[in-house]
Amino acid sequence: MQTTQHKIQSRRVYFLIFRRITMNKYIIICLTLLLALPQLCVAANPIPQSAQTTAVAMQNPNNGMLTMMQALEKVQAAGYSSIYEAEFDDGRYKVKALDSKGHKVKLYVNPVTGAINVDRD
């Protein structure tokens, strides 16, 4: 027969082994979740195309795209003057200028082709 002391000691050993195994499982689960979380966030919230284009343009403005100065030169070459506002937004250059008759126009310049689309105010 086992003594009471021996039974208690056996239970402690089993408890410690069980606790170590359980803790290892929790650690593995936590690490797995920690590593998977960024991929889950990206899959749930993909970056909009305009933000991707803007990010590429900011990292390397000459990556097959017109620079701001080149876009403004194209606008001036197309006959628009008095450029009073220009920005890169939504994957294209937005330029506000005056046409040949002095009317305000909003121009959208494609950063790859240089094509100009006109939106009259």
Features:
121 residues, 4 strands, alpha+beta, 3 helices, four-stranded antiparallel β-sheet, 22% strand, 51% helix, 2 domains
Instruction: Encode the helix/strand succession as letters.
Output: HHHEEEE
Question: Could you tell me the mean pLDDT?
Answer: 74
Euclidean distance between termini CA atoms: 98 Å
Largest sheet: 4 strands, antiparallel
User: Helical residue percent?
Assistant: 40-55%
Give a count of the beta strands, DSSP E runs of length 2 or more: 4
Tell me the strand order in the biggest sheet. 1-2-3-4
Oligomeric organization of the protein chains: single chain
Strand content: 15-25%
Rg for CA atoms: 32 Å
- Estimate nothing, just give the exact number of structural domains: 2
Overall structural class, as computed from helix and strand content, comes to: alpha+beta
